[in-house]
Specification:
The chain has 62 residues and is mainly alpha-helical. The protein is 24% helix and 0% strand.
Length: 62
């Protein structure tokens, strides 16, 4: 099996897998791992995240 075991951070995910030759049924495990890592990395986000190239009101970009 070429799925990461218990990833908790983005660096635990291996960008070289899945391989093109890996069984298709492992795809669900890869998606679950990505979801777990994102939820562990950003635990306080409960809805959509908007990204902007502008600094938030009242902050200063350095």
């Amino acid at each position: 099996m070429t799925v990461e075991l218990n990833p908790t951070t983005i660096t635990d995910l291996n960008p070289k897998i899945p391989l093109i030759t890996d069984p298709r049924f492992e795809g669900a495990a890869h998606i679950r791992n990505i979801k777990t890592v994102l939820q562990d990395t950003f635990p306080n986000f409960k809805g959509p995240i908007a990204v902007s190239d502008r600094a938030p009101h009242g902050s200063h970009m350095v």
